[in-house]
Amino acid sequence: MNAFAAQLAPLSLEQVVRFAGAVQDFNPVHYDPEFARNAGLPGVIAQGPLTYLVALDALITAGVASPRAGSFKVRLKAPVFPNTPLAISADEAGKVSVRAGDAEALAGQLL
Fold first, then answer.
1. Domain containing 73: what range?
2. What integer pLDDT is reported at residue 29 of this predicted model?
3. Which residue among 81, 90, 91, 110 is the one 20 to 30 A from 60 at the CA level?
4. What is the structure's pLDDT at 67?
5. What is the pTM of this model?
6. What's the rounded Cα separation, in Å, for the pair 20 and 32?
7. Number of domains the chain is built from
8. CATH number where 70 lies
9. Residue 69 has what pLDDT?
10. 50, β-bridge pairs
11. What is the Cα 18 distance to its own chain's centre?
12. Cα-atom radius of gyration of the chain, to the nearest Å?
């Protein structure tokens, strides 16, 4: 596998809300800023599965992973907030990292 690194487009609040509707995840931390703040967050957060899919899509688009890949195991490590810059990297061994701003939001392994 070749090493890979790229900047990704930030997720918009609209994308997060649309994904919530698509997967029937109506937890208000994904669409209601006041609720999210009252829950101790600085604002709305993206769903973990959305972060996973953004990473997998970037890897497939770059030719790093196959759509028929064996598996992509991940650990979600930090929340992703709308409009936060995202970056993805993968090394030759298949270790993947997604950064949201200064935080590592996802750590994973392509198998």
1. 4-110
2. 98
3. 81
4. 73
5. 0.93
6. 12
7. 1
8. 3.10.129.10
9. 63
10. none
11. 15
12. 14
Residue among 107, 8, 1 at smallest CA distance from 54: 8
> Do 11 and 54 meet the contact criterion of CB atoms below 8 Å apart?
yes
Q: How many CA atoms lie less than 13 Å away from 28 in the CB half-sphere?
A: 9
Confidence of residue 106 (pLDDT cuts 50, 70, 90): very high
* Chain centre to alpha carbon of residue 25: 16
Across 65-104, b (16+ Cβ under 10 Å) vs e yields beeeeeebebebebbbbbebebbbebeeebebbbbbeeee
Question: Could you read off the pLDDT of 46-93 as tens digits, one per residue?
Answer: 999 999 999 999 999 998 888 776 789 999 999 999 999 999 999 999
The answer to whether 96 and 74 are in contact (CB under 8 A) is yes
Residue 97 token pair: 């990292």
Rounded distance between C-alpha atoms, residue 41 and residue 34, angstroms? 9
Separation between Cα atoms, residue 81 and residue 83, nearest integer Å: 6
